[in-house]
Amino acid sequence: MNLYVVKMFFIVQSGCGEINANLMKLLIMINACKIASASRVTAVPYFPYARQDRKDKVRELKRTLSVAGADHIITMDLHASQIHRFFDIPVDNLLQNRLLFDGFL
Predict the structure, then answer these.
(1) What is the pairing mode between strands 72-76 and 40-44?
(2) 75 in helix, strand or coil?
(3) pLDDT tens digits for 13-48?
(4) Count of Cβ atoms closer than 10 Å to residue 19 Cβ
(5) Which of the four CATH numbers 3.40.50.2300, 1.20.1290.10, 3.40.50.720, 3.40.50.2020 does domain 9-104 have?
């Protein structure tokens, strides 16, 4: 019998506390999942730098998430919708107001 086990991880970053320390924890957790043979890692970062219009900060974060091993990113309410174009990996930008509104209907 040939069994194929898919190890999928979703890592949700906290928005509380020190931003850079939390980002480092997220990167370490992504890398640890990849070392543990994860087939897919989806990161849900707090993404504090998304509120800035400076592209260099977004590019740095994109690069570090990709290098750490993230295969997919889920964000909430990106400041500028074009930010997802900086990523080499799939990015889903969820609109919080739409999710909340649909939940009440």
Answers:
(1) parallel
(2) strand
(3) 887 888 888 889 999 999 999 999 999 999 998 876
(4) 13
(5) 3.40.50.2020
